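1st attempt posting a full record on here, be nice pls
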Amino acid sequence: MDIAQCCLDGNADVVEFCPHDGFQNILAACTYTLQEGDQPSRLGSISLFDVNAVTSALDRVCFVETSGIFDIKWSPVRGTVSPSIAQADAAGCLRIHGLERSSDELGSTGVVLKQTTDIQLSSSMCLCVDWNPLGTSLAVGLSDGSVSVSSLTESQLSEEQQWKAHDFEVWAASFDPHQPSVVYSGSDDCKFRGWDLREGLTVPAFQNSKAHNMGICCIVKNPIDPYALLTGSYDEHLRVWDVRSISKPVTETSVCLGGGVWRIKYHPSIKDLVLTACMHNGFAIVKLSDGNPEVIETYNEHGSLAYGADWQRSQLGQEGETTNSLVATCSFYDRMVRVWIPKADLLS
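the predicted structure (as tokens):
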């Protein structure tokens, strides 16, 4: 069921609901727009929306212009950082924006984003970003094949390590929430690699170069199961991995989603349910249980590349019941953000 929609100022590529208590109604939507010409530029923005499913409202409450954005992540709920957005952008920068309450002259309250710190990581572009579970470190994948890890201490970023991880663009770099010293990376070179930050980074802890037939777009660890991990690829497959043996992960199963699997998001409260952005084939909700992934719903209301997708974290309703699962999605060239409720019974 469609709730609301909005057209952004640029090409939409990321949407993320804030997971922090008191801010679950806040949706961040980001853009990346290439301005061609003699001196091409890559421009971007972050828009914050107040989402209300009851009134079908999608109200923009904050707007920040910045460099073209490839990825953002909200700080982890159980971490030491207050609600913040980490931004990976085309200028080669990692930026942190803090979320704060605000009030106007009439006493109306709202929210505002304020950049708290940034660091220039490379002359190459920053393509993806992920926090460690405590919010003290961030991993970034770069367009030159490198991965960077920076620490965040007292609102200041400092790069700890950067190494050549792949031959081509790194579209996926993520921490293992159950083993924070492990970083996973995936690239256009079709290699899926794991790195142990406690060891020398000249050789990966593991490598799989056979499973993916095209470049790897995203890597997501199951937040509950310490051994389950998902990868998405341009080859249209969502793959389920068992990383019980860090030196040799095993591909357990896969499902073809009919489009490049650009983004994967686990449902915040329903086990083994994921939302996927499938580039040329819209969006899909997949149930992973029992080793047999099954598509239980698709959403094809967008008219362009399906890039951004996220679940809203549960909020308590007026009678103490959690609200329905709410989804935000965005598409690139038509610049659309849509908020909707799945039709399927997600608990069945």
